[in-house]
User: Fold this.
Amino acid sequence: MFFASTRQALEVTERTLRASFVQSGVAEGTLIALARGRIVAVQRFGPDRSHVDRPLPAVRAADEGAACRERLAALVRAAA
Assistant:
């Protein structure tokens, strides 16, 4: 199993591993327990709606994600 915060991250993993995944979302407030790659328990909880995020610092490398994907693609091509 792979977990990612974005579909794009899962797609990078698919391309890197040359595999196709069955992708599904997990609803907010869901805790999934895994054992040996299988779901063994699912619990629901109420998220803390009173939490207030603090502002994050400015992104120092706005294009870092794209640059990392390009490097990963180059590594995959070199390994092929």
